[in-house]
Amino acid sequence: MEEQINNKHDKGYKDLFSNKETFITLLRSFVNEPWVDEIDESKLEYINKSYILHDFAEKEADIVYKLNFKGKNVFFYCLLELQSTVDKTMPIRLLFYMNEIWRDYIKNTEAPDKLPVIVPMVLYNGKQKWSVPVNFRDILFDSDVFNKYVVEFSYLLFDVSRYNDEELLNLANLVSSIFYLDKEIELNEIATKIKRLIFVFKKLDKKELQFIKRWLRFIVKSKMPKDKHSELDKILDDNIDLEVEEMVSNFALSIEKAFKESEQKGIEKGIEKGIEKGIEKGIEKGIEKGIAIEKGIEKGIEKTAETAFKKGADINFIADITGLSFDKLREIEQKVKNQQN
User: Among residues 7, 89, 94, 100, which one has the least CA distance to residue 49?
Assistant: First the structure.
């Protein structure tokens, strides 16, 4: 399946973890398993292919690596689940994708005796707590009854929002910085967070700094007003040789300025809407009052006609002085007669 990247976040993370040094940093920072330290970077290969099902092509992206581990192939399959809600079908989808990798392997390997291990992973950045079991057997009915006959595997979960801020800052690397920025991507928070990361950015090499800039371009720009995009691009493009502090300072200032302007526009729009609503309500009240006055006048005229009938006045005379229709006057006349009987 050809790669499809439909979401800025997907593209940002895909770009980041398609670099094998960064992928290894992810594993070494957040996976506490002995085999992580035994990974030889020179034997890790990025597979430029996607296994995402057609139904989910617009919602997620994936990253695949093949590792020659002590002479045997191992695959790492990382699903980028960058949605706001938790998907309960995640374990079964992972199984589908793993099956596709094995199918490919069988097709391209002559009569294999065994299949390679696949380490499934999910990277999730939603605010809602991840509530899907990480063990496949836990989504099956009666798995404890049929025990050894059920499909069983676990996946690694990178739940970005659940990592502690201090933990991420203490790790002080490219991946932890991205996770730290991604935990809260509201515009008014980003400037403060970028400033806190200056000490980390100063430790990064030029290649890693370029990743940070690309990330800021993917994610921060989507939160900024369109008329500020070229200004941000200029800051990121023109500051390649500047000190990190200066680049961060310029970028943070631009974000703060954009936030204040959008805040001011929001206030102005709110006032404008308030005035419109006030005028609208005033007109409604005026109309209501006008209707009430009109009804009062009508009642008064009808009362005058009633009194005139009681005094024996002619219907034609009453029509001239009240302006009421003859039908209405006959109705009033009948009412008076009924009262007198």
Answer: 100
